[in-house]
Specification:
Structural class: alpha/beta
Strand content: 5-15%
Shape: globular
Largest sheet: 6 strands, mixed
Mean pLDDT: 84
Pfam families: ECH_1
Order of helices and strands: HEEHEHHEEHEEHHEHEHHHH
InterPro entries: ClpP/crotonase-like_dom_sf, ECH/Chromodomain_protein, Enoyl-CoA_hydra/iso, Enoyl-CoA_hydra_C
Number of domains: 2
Subcellular location: Peroxisome
Keywords: Isomerase, Peroxisome
CATH class of the largest domain: Alpha Beta
Main location: other
CATH superfamily of the largest domain: 2-enoyl-CoA Hydratase, Chain A, domain 1
Radius of gyration: 20 Å
Amino acid sequence: MERLHKLSSHLRGVHADSREQVAANPTAAAQEPEVLYEVVEGGVAIIRLNRPSRLNALTGSMQAAYFDTLDQANADPLVRVIVVTGSGRGFCAGAEMDLLKTIGSKDGEVSKVASQPKRDLRQTQALAVLKPIIAAINGPVAGLGFVLATMCDIRFAVEKAKFTSAFAKRGLVAEHGISWMLPKVVGASNANDILMSSRVFLGHEAKEMGFVTRVYPDQETLMREVLAYARDMAVNCSPAALAEMKVQVYDDFLKTPLQSIDHANGLMAKSFAHPDSKEGVASYVEKRAPNFQGLAFGRIMDTTP
């Protein structure tokens, strides 16, 4: 898949209201993993951003851990759908404010570069994961956290979740590829409103704009419904088809309609020869749940018709 390039790699975008006091036991808090990873029944991996005392504000190491867990889920044959959420009352407040304070000072820049994780931190890496990524937005999301949510494939949220891009109010540009992705999610006018005003909006407005698919009254309902949705997708949808659809959606952003149709026609011919297609038809005719093997048999694009 064609990648974005020259995206800014520095960490920015925290909303001012996202700052909180450090937990009563900072030593214990420091020992907690910044990102939690769990595979639950039904083929669903849960990735949980885990700095609740800071509304899960992102450090460099935390971003690296997030992408490491995406890679882990992508490589795990038992995982078919990925859910991303936050610990505590927030999803992700953006970049850690202490990192933001160093930007603009020579000493800070040297320190930041020296401590920068070695792995690629571009948010567009999520688009290359061959499994659906669902954001369960359980609370405030701002700046870099807003970008992280935007790069997920599907988004659900609680009604009272607060959303803001925050960049304009920090004197920053539309960072980390969001100027490419957000207009495709909500349209140019809504994207400009979100980016240029940097205003705060809530879950129902996010749904009206198409940024989230559904909203729920509280965190418990959100996670219950998101996991039910993810499990249904994991059980009843072909992993091979999901992988190819995801690539199609993002690659087709850069294609003309005719190029998209030609590419889809070629994939369709290949899909008929993939075992998941045969199983999908057989399970429907036999009125039973499908037993998809999916990517164990390889990508649809690599199948010989």
